[in-house]
Design goal:
This protein is α+β, with helices and mostly antiparallel strands. The protein contains two helices and five strands, in the order βββββαα. The site of zinc ion has 8 residues, from loops.
Amino acid sequence: MYLIIRCQNCGTFAYIDPFQNWKLCPVCGEIMQRGSVPEYLEVKDHHEADAVIAELERYLYLNNRTDLTRDETRTLRAAYVQRVGSGTFR
Ligand SMILES: [Zn+2]
């Protein structure tokens, strides 16, 4: 499992092993600390993480937005769970 998070300094999406407490931003080097950065959703592997991040960036770009609302985050999680199927996700 990986958790999709976002750097608060530069806005880059990244993913972290849920057992890790922090990760360095691959773009700006900022420490992304669990609990102090936005957490979007959990995905099952790093391929999924890359795909979801690409989707997120595309969505924000197309809608000329900088971040998701809480509702959109919820919708994203629900859509992901549905796509992966209840048997394999969690
Ligand atoms: Zn950064």
